[in-house]
Design goal:
Helix content: 55-70%
Shape: globular
Radius of gyration: 25 Å
Largest sheet: 2 strands, parallel
Distance between the termini: 44 Å
Order of helices and strands: HHHHEHEHHHHEHHHHEHHHHHHHHHH
Structural class: mainly alpha
Length: about 550
């Protein structure tokens, strides 16, 4: 028996031929390299000295082995499809299963009643109610202020939605009640969306093994603590994450032949995509690049899908800034968000290589950013201190001169730019950071100052402390790592389902539904330019990655 087990393990790790072993080894080397480089960037800022080079070489070898073994095991599990599943004679009780998922989340709401929020939400709502503009305008010493109805530093649609619920609560006698109503609505929407998708794919799964995987994914969404913690959070990223899941499912159903049109009609597809765009600034790029990817598929509606996406681009890039913002006296936000990573790279250049900057270079930088404040306030792991020095009255000529200088210095000092970037985004691509949560309602003035916890704060504090202790426990901590959902799951899905599958079947299996991987990778790319390493920037991946495993892993009956 032991001999048979040993032979089976050996076959799993070393079998399937030279080509398969070579592919898996190459993939593992690349993944190990990405991991080690990002860990070095976080810990040692891309400096390799005789004191740490040996450690990183050992780490590289260890990660290579771990990735290789993991890859071989995942492929062995994936290729074993299992027995054919019995046909579902009846539809699953969708309402009941959604309510069960909602009930699994309810204890979190009761502990943190009426829910939780972060400072971005506080700034958004206070800006609308009280005219207090969110950072950086009006809060930075010496910074020019703006006198407007609303600041689009954060997307204005979530601002209006959040504020509407709080206004309803105020009319009913309590802003806290409005906050609670919003949280309950968000929880219900999330439970019905996620549970409904899982019911649908469960009924159509071809094998018992596939159905077991879907059940595991359901348990994940019910009992992984960070899922309900974000569901009870008034946060633009949560709203965007649910829309992201909806878009992926709409595309999946269409490309598996179960809908004649995405979302049933192109008007509904447009509504989903435009909401994805207006809830988070990066949403438009997910929509556009996904549509471009669909153009390469042999699909009768690919041009219509592209036109819908271009319509979203027109609304986002033209209608909002040229029509809606001026009509409502909304400040469009500064360019500091768009150029945040570039500004951070310049700040790192000032710190590491200031002697290489000419007086003209310094003047060019100072026309766009406060040069002296950069030297004083620069931090390695967040772009906000540098972005806060942005001069909102700088001219187009100033910005063009800065961009030319940035490119010129980047060619001369690429490593410095990598240090600036990877020091922030590294934990999205390497282990080390658990998924953070919000565990209270921030203290604030204005309307948000009227929203109070309905249970003693010590309950929430103890629960948050327990969550943190769980995320650092040996072995268990790995399922709480941000990198697992933000990078490893998307990359493994692509490798196993596209590269490895094609290598095994030279003819290539036609699976157009694999297009749903594209929104994941567009989002992964934007993690590189995140303003800080915080889990909410990867929230749509944290929400969607396990669901995509359930969508693409098992075999399904096709229409």
């Amino acid at each position: 028996m032991k001999l048979e087990r040993g032979l089976e393990i050996k076959k799993t790790i070393c079998g399937e031929g030279e080509k398969a072993v070579t592919l898996d080894a190459a993939f593992s080397l690349v993944m190990a390299f990405i991991t080690v480089i990002n860990q070095n960037a976080i810990m040692d800022h891309l400096f390799f000295s005789k004191y740490n080079i040996a450690r990183y070489v050992i780490l590289f070898m260890v990660y290579t082995v771990l990735f290789y073994v993991t890859t071989r095991i995942i492929w062995a599990v994936y290729k074993d499809k299992g027995k054919e599943a019995a046909i579902c004679e009846k539809r699953l009780p969708r309402l009941k299963l959604a309510l069960i998922m909602l009930a699994a989340w309810l204890p979190y709401l009761l502990v943190f009643l009426p829910g939780v929020a972060n400072y971005d939400t506080v700034n958004q709502v206070n800006d609308l109610f009280d005219g207090v503009g969110p950072v950086p305008f009006g809060f930075i010493e010496g910074q020019k202020t703006v006198n407007v109805f609303l600041n689009a530093h954060h997307p204005i649609v979530p601002t209006f939605i959040f504020s509407a619920f709080i206004a309803i609560g105020t009319l009913l006698g309590s802003a806290t009640l409005g906050f609670l109503i919003y949280v309950i609505c968000q929880m219900a929407a999330g439970a019905f969306l996620i549970s409904g998708i899982l019911c649908d794919i469960y009924e159509n799964a071809k094998t018992n093994k596939g159905r077991k995987l879907i059940k595991l994914v359901r348990l994940f969404y019910m009992f992984m603590p960070f899922i309900p913690m974000y569901m009870i959070c008034m946060l633009k990223n949560t709203m965007h994450g649910l829309l992201f899941i909806l878009l992926i499912y709409v595309l999946y159903r269409y490309f598996t032949g179960r809908d004649e049109k995405p979302a049933g009609s192109f008007a509904l597809l447009f509504l989903i995509e435009i909401m994805l765009c207006v809830t988070l600034n990066t949403g438009i790029f997910v929509v556009i690049f996904t549509a471009i990817g669909i153009l390469f598929l042999k699909d009768k509606n690919r041009l219509k899908i592209l036109l819908v996406s271009l319509g979203c681009a027109v609304v986002w890039f033209i209608v909002f800034p040229k029509v809606i913002y001026p009509a409502m006296n909304i400040f469009p936000g500064g360019k500091q968000e768009l150029y945040g990573t570039l500004f951070q790279q310049t700040a790192r250049l000032i710190r590491d290589k200031e002697e290489d900057l000419t007086d003209e270079d310094k003047e060019i930088i100072n026309a766009v950013l406060d040069y002296d404040r950069i030297k004083k306030d620069f931090t390695f792991n967040v772009t906000d201190p540098v972005k806060d020095t942005y001069r909102i009255d700088c001219t187009k000529e100033d910005m063009n001169a800065y961009l030319k200088m940035w490119l010129r210095q980047g060619i001369k000092h690429p490593v410095v730019y990598f240090r600036a970037t990877l020091s922030i985004c590294g934990y999205f691509f390497a282990p080390g950071a658990g998924i953070q949560i919000f565990s209270d309602i921030p203290k604030a003035k204005g309307i948000f100052g009227e929203i109070h916890s309905l249970v003693p704060s010590r309950f929430g504090e103890k629960a948050a402390e327990l969550y943190f202790q769980i995320t650092i426990m040996p072995v268990i901590k790995w399922i709480f790592q941000t990198v697992l959902y933000a990078f490893w799951i998307p990359v493994y899905l692509f490798y196993i389902l596209v590269i490895r599958d094609k290598a095994e079947d030279e003819k290539g299996k036609k699976r157009p539904e694999l297009i749903v991987l594209l929104p994941l990778f567009v989002t992964v790319l934007f993690l590189v330019v995140s303003p800080m390493n915080y889990s909410r920037y990867a929230l749509c991946l944290i929400f969607a990655s396990p669901l995509v495993v359930a969508l693409l892993g098992p075999l399904y009956k096709r229409s």
